[in-house]
Specification:
The chain has a single domain, classed as P-loop containing nucleotide triphosphate hydrolases (Rossmann fold). The protein is 43% helix and 22% strand. A hairpin with a 2-residue loop joins strand 6 and strand 7. Helix 4 packs across helix 6.
Amino acid sequence: MSIILYTGGMKSGKSRCAEERALKYKGKRLYVATAQIIDKEMEERVKKHRERRKDLFDTLEEPLKLKDTLKKEYDLIMIDCLTFWYNNLLFYYERDEEREKELTQFVDALKNFDKNIILVTNEVGWGVIPVNPLARQFIDFSGMANQRIQEVCHETYLVVSGLEVRLK
C-alpha cells in the first residue's frame, strides 16, 4: 500500500509522470477526474488526457466527494487533479468550514486507505501575489491543503519540465 503525490506547475508533465507510475501497478486501475468541462479549451484538455489514458484506466468524474472515491474496489486509484478539486470546493461551498470539513474527511480517508493511490496537484503559489481576493484565497487554500495531504503520503515528487525529483 502506498500513497504517492505528484506536484508541480501547470504543464510540467506531472500527470504524465503519475500515469506512467500508475501503469506499473497490476490489476484494476481507476482514474478519478476532478475537472469539470466549462468551456471549449477545458474540453480540449480533457480530451487529450482521455486519449493519452486510452482504456488503461476506468474513469470516474467526481468534482467534490473525493473521500467516497476511495471506497471503490480497485487495486490503484489515481486522482487528477487535486487543484481542480480545491477550485470546486471554493466554488460550491461558501464557508471555510465546509471546505475544511471536506479536506479533513479526505485526509482522514487517506490515512485509513489500504490500497495504492497516486495524487496529482499543482504548486500555485510560485508567482506574484494576485490583486484578486478570490485568487489569493485559492492560493492560500491550495497551499495549506497540499501540505496537509503530503503529510500522509509515503512519497512526494516535484515535476519540473517533465523531470521528477523525489522530495519525500
